[in-house]
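#struct-pred
JK: can someone run the complex with iron/sulfur cluster? inputs below
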Amino acid sequence: VLSRHQRDATRLMQILREIQEELDWLSPQTLTAIAEGLKLPRAKVEGVAGFYHFFHSEPKGRYRVLWSDNITDRMLGNADLMARMCKKLWLRPGEVSEDQLVSVDTTSCTGMCDQGPAMLVNYRPLTRMTPERVDKVVDLIRHKVPLDEWPAEYFVVEDNIRRKDALLGNDLAPGDALRAMRGPAEMLEAIKASGLRGRGGAGFSTGQKWEFCRNAVGTGAHGAHYVVCNADEGEPGTFKDRVLLSAHADLVFEGMTVAAYVIGAKKGLVYLRGEYRYLLDKLNAVLEKRRADKLLGKSILGQTGFDFDIEVHLGAGAYICGEETALLESLEGHRGVPRKRPPFPVTSGYLGQPTAVNNVETLASAALIAAKGAAWYKSIGTAKSSGTKVLSISGDCARPGIYEYPYGVTVSQVLADCGAIDTQACQIAGASGLCIAPGEFGRRIAFEDIPTGGSFMIFDNTRDMFEVARNFVHFFVDESCGFCTPCRVGTTLLKNVMDKIHDGHGGEYDIGDAQRVIKTLKTASHCGLGQTAGNCVADTLQKFRPSYELRLTVREFEPAFDLDKALSKMREVTGRDDPGAHFHIAHRKSKSG
Ligand code: SF4
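RT: done, structure tokens with the ligand placed:
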């Protein structure tokens, strides 16, 4: 494996993944051998392996089952299904069976929210799980049937495209966008004139980003520039990039090639989230075909000097790598910790070189603009949000799936189209996004009103919005990279408060506590994950306060756990059971006067 990657330390992630795929796990000896082979400190290799959820340095069983645990999976009954599976396998969640055959655990959202409950077995997705399907999977595991021999229908991932517009309904053939380009400067002007903005959620002007990158001077022999496609969509409830890559990979790669043409890049990298490992072979086949058709490689379309190629890198289960600088760190073979900005990636990105990092949908849209023109594109959408937006719709509706709309569509229109009734709330833009109540359903999906990367989760009036927020808070604890204290500690404190309220020990004091933590998260965290981690609690507290209030059973402060009970072990050890060896709030109060 090391030789295949030319012993290049920047390829550490791919090396770890490929070795783990062969050996099932990364033993201490394996990590040492990798460190020696790459001439890296062992601590560095261990640090990277320990950072990502999908690498494991202890055996996890021949079959590693991970249940997707997004709120939409919960709503579809994943907890009962996982309990059923564990019972049949005589396992507890998180455990490995004694014979090392199987482990069962949960993972964050797997991007299959439109066809859940979903799970991964050895990182391959299984969708639409039912009790019957769980029983069959248990049988297959017990009989040690290789995954390739499991029924193919278990692994079907549908595209579920329900509404097409300019992008998903495009009639382009591979190469059309490239043949329409007249020169890098003209192409840049077209992207600027189109008003295209980043589809990952932040909405930065794509034309400006490419212009900064094009004007930045690289270092080294070739002054390299890079194009990076961010396909690490990990935001709970988002799965539109999965569908774009599955159904329109050519258009995405073509958009990367357009970007390379404008900024002068020779190399492009797709950072594909680990949960979409199943798409890797298919994407590589599309790339191979494009090389054969002279749409990638040397002298693209016979144009001397227009050289560009693309490689797909796989992530390994870390939501934070959707943040562009964390993604670059990961691409370089490091832990996915966000960098300080400035410098921005456009001047100092991959390997310190000018890099345009764009979302999958942004790049596909850029190809569309190259082929059809800026004016046509600008005529779609609203004044400040040109073009269309692809939404991933899941939750309480009759027709979950992918819906593409011109920007400016109202939330109520979306709800009507997907067959949502009695809707209590929509969570738009994922766990870190915005939770809106029915009074706001006239609002529009657009940068000037509700911007979104594409996640659109629906909750009808049978749902408990406190539990929705609690699920999201747990997600952020799992996904905080741990680099900065406000987020590392703050997300855990917020989780503790939510769990305390859930367990019936909460009062008004705890609501205030949550609000203080949210403020610290927002103002003191290093990156967007921490800054937005409290949004779900802030929104639900404001708009769905009764779901909290019915749990606020305590008038005065009460600890989250029974301290007196926790001391019982020590009483046993010391042989004491006198009043002084007990802790009661009343006792503490009388002591303090
Ligand atoms: Fe990491 Fe959270 Fe700090 Fe971002 S805010 S750097 S995710 S610890």
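RT: quick notes.
The radius of gyration is 25 Å.
The first strand starts at residue 63 and ends at 68.
JK: thanks, will look after standup
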